[in-house]
Amino acid sequence: MGIEVVVEGLTKSFGKQNIWQDVSLTLPAGEVSVMLGPSGTGKTVFLKSIIGLLKPEQGRVLINGVDMVNSSERDIMETRKLFGLMFQDGALFGSMSLFDNIAFPLREHTRKKESEIRRIVMERIDIVGLLGAEGKLPGEISGGMRKRAGLARALVLDPQIILCDEPDSGLDPVRTAYLSQLLIDLNAQIDATMLIVTHNLDIAATVPDNMGMLFCRNLVTFGPREVLLTSDTPVVSQFLAGRREGPIGMSEEKDAATLAAEQLADTAPPRTGPRTVVPQLEPSPGMPVRQGALRRRERVMSMMGQLPEAARTAILNSYAPAAGGARA
Q1: Is residue 216 within 8 Å of residue 253, measured between CB atoms?
Q2: Is 139 exposed, middle or buried (0-12, 13-18, 19+ CB in 10 A)?
Q3: Which pLDDT tens digit goes with each residue over 109-151?
Q4: How far, in Å, CA of 290 to CA of 282, rounded?
Q5: Where along the chain do its domains lie?
Q6: What is the pLDDT of residues 21-55, one digit of tens each?
Q7: How much is the pTM?
Q8: CB-based contact 21:197 (threshold 8 Å)
Q9: Which architecture does CATH list for 5-225?
Q10: Do 150 and 92 contact (CB within 8 A), yes or no?
């Protein structure tokens, strides 16, 4: 089962530039979470801070009692073994076959025999649907296949926490849909805690149990997916609708005068009623029930009194047709 990740009061700057401040959230064990945000809001920096590759100025990231910000380098390195990290571009070695790329962490960090390494690598290659391509070089396959190879490599050390940085970048909508299903199926199989950083609205709407959003150097919100998907917060509404009108500008947030002028000129009818929340993806036929989804259902139902009405309605609607099932 995955491990809970507790982030408390995290603040990160580069020189005088504050990236984000006082970020606090909990990634529930074995659940799939998504962090949204416009380009340039520090989503990748957040991932690197969780795994200890970057040092925030303030705050803590607690994993199994180890603080990935302030603990000794030895403890951080040991805890990092619990992670699998899927990079934007797959980060594959161009001169190595897919097999050798995926085997690299096992050869680097374990003393397993080559026969055992081959068994593990071929299992992971099968999971991501790349059987038959293991002998190819990264330059000989499509971008989507490189993504899946990167995911297979992230899985070889049996991680309990998986971080995916923009897994959809460079993929067309069909490949993105396949990858979304693969991530849900993977969660069903290994019950790992997963955090996906993206600005892809299809992934955001269909994959996660929980969603957060970074904007204007702050965490706008983090919680059950229905809270963000039904939110009337202007920055959230603008982002989810893909509209130009709202606080998000081309390079950063807009100033007050620009926002006021937009509001005066906005002739679009106001949205009435709660936003429709599309169903979350279910594991493919033959896959096990997602244990994270079962735990998530119990957790969310216990916090219903703290949630906005629109989110409560969406949650109850999502569970109504699945009485006795495992929808989350």
Answers
A1: yes
A2: exposed
A3: 889 999 999 999 999 999 888 999 999 999 999 888 888 899 9
A4: 8
A5: 5-225
A6: 999 999 999 999 999 988 788 898 999 999 999 99
A7: 0.87
A8: no
A9: 3-Layer(aba) Sandwich (3.40)
A10: yes
